[in-house]
Amino acid sequence: QGRLVDSGGGLVQAGGSLRLTCTASLPSRHYALGWFRQAPGKEREFVAEINGGGTFADYADSVKGRFTISRDNTVATAALQMNELKPEDTGVYYCNAGANGLRRSTGRYWGQGTQVTVSP
Known about the structure:
Helix content: under 10%
Order of helices and strands: EEEEEEEEEEE
Radius of gyration: 13 Å
Number of helices: 0
Structural class: mainly beta
């Protein structure tokens, strides 16, 4: 069994920054970790992913250059640093864990979600 806990969301003005954290308790530390988000009335979408070794990251085009994903396997956490936030970044952000390639096939483990709201 595994568990993910998301934290770090909040309210910020456009142009500001937030840092999300995903704390993992998983059967293996080799799982890829990633973030998805869901805006009101929209489907959940891929945001970013980092592989098990922390050597490769993938980003949605909409966040590339503004968001950075990282992980620390010594404490089983992943972080999403979000800079230059825009109102369209508003949504509930979910941590996800599974095999590499979360963009194509989401993993079996999900966090509970954390709300990010960006005001104009």
